Amino acid sequence: MTHPQGQAPAPLDKADRCADLDHRPRVLLGKMGLDGHDRGVKLIARAMRDSGIHVIYSGLWQTPRSLAISARDEDADCIAASMMSNSHLVLVPRLVDECAQVGRPDMIVNIGGIIPQEDVQSMRDAGVNEVHHTGTSMADIVESVRRATRRRAAPETYEHATAALARALSFAHDGSWKPAESAMRRPPRVIGITGSPGAGKSTLVASLAGEFVRRDLGRLAVVAFDPQSPITHGALLGDRLRVDFNNLDESVFYRSLAITGEDYATLPLIIGLIGAAGFDTLLVETVGAGQNDVAIRQFVDRTAVVLVPGMGDSIQMDKAGLLEIGDLFVCNKADFPGEASLVRDLLDISEGRPIFETIATRGQGVPQLLDGLLRG
Ligand code: B12
Ligand SMILES: Nc1nc2c(ncn2[C@@H]2O[C@H](COP(=O)(O)OP(=O)(O)OP(=O)(O)O)[C@@H](O)[C@H]2O)c(=O)[nH]1
Ligand SMILES: [Mg+2]
Fold it and tell me: Domains of the chain, with CATH numbers?
């Protein structure tokens, strides 16, 4: 069928519109149910990022439960759920309910999209904070996030241990609180996953997490870093999108964080809090790395460097930096041409360090990679 194009509101210029708030807002932007209309959320995500907000985009086809778990673990100030498929009357009350079930009865839920006027009251009655309609201006959307960004309660306010951990991580990462040494413990295994932007780190982590849970190898946590804008301090945290939380449910704790450059200064606190919460293994995904980005090495026990075919010739392999810090190498996107020559070049410089070939999108080679990561 042919649709008329929906009107997209004018974009906002890049400016930090949140510097005066109690803390930098974190918004979980997601879509539930079988709703493929993602044009609006993409525009909203960009407008939020360009206004100094940290946006965690959890992707399409979420269940109310997976969205609630994501909002709790990401310690979102609010969930911004975009509803375009006429399923709001069923899914939105379930979302509010699930937030309470997973330990965050106070989570603010804002919705927008195709919500008929006559349904607005029942959405409010279900516990929804704000209802927005098509044509809402980007400035109004940013305002709705500002209204939702209230003074944060202390971690111990939450009875649910994971909700408390998620809040403690927020405080530790933004520097407003430093946990006591006695409140921290390093998990037995801390593994860094680094490599150039788009190499497939998050897809690999998602696939590794699935394999880890299938094998019942203990409690796994993931911390994934994405860049923060030097202009607005906003960030689009898109690593979580690769993980299927509809399936993994609560079996993996996953937290996205924004940093400027390679400033991992808060990582020791984050590692310590996650270990103290009883996690055995922590995977840390770095921001997309360049040749010089080697800082992660000092925080983790082992580092996997993810490479993809077609990035250069064998001279690149001899350059100092990123390739030196790998305890093992992953040649991901092994379905791309040039894979054999990448492996050959890596063999020349690997000095016995293992090389794994993977196709992360299909889970191919991932069981072997997990074995390799756990062996160290
Ligand atoms: C473009 C469009 C499509 C595109 C989608 C492209 C894409 N990747 O998104 C295509 C052609 C693929 C499509 C397909 C379908 N569509 Co369509 N589509 C539209 C259309 C014309 C515009 C949507 C749009 O992009 N608007 C522009 C963006 C920027 O606006 P927005 O998404 O509404 O978001 C704004 C606000 O709503 C608000 N907002 C949204 N969410 C949130 C959340 C929060 C927290 C806040 C604060 C604000 C907020 O802020 C945004 C900025 O203003 C609408 C009609 C309309 N005028 O809305 C129909 C419409 C949404 N589609 C509809 C239908 C039925 C379908 C199909 C089922 C049609 C079919 N039979 O094939 C399929 C289903 C696809 C799927 N997999 O889900 C219906 C939905 C009916 C309903 N809900 O009752 C609509 C309303 C058309 C109609 N009048 O019948 N569609
Ligand atoms: N063909 C192919 N595509 C892949 C593979 N692994 C990942 N991708 C795709 O590559 C793109 C980037 O994947 P991500 O996992 O987000 O990469 P990333 O390294 O985490 O990216 P940043 O976090 O932005 O640095 C996505 O479109 C993935 O679907 C693979 O093995 N083969
Ligand atoms: Mg990533």
Answer: 26-151 (3.40.50.280), 164-375 (3.40.50.300)
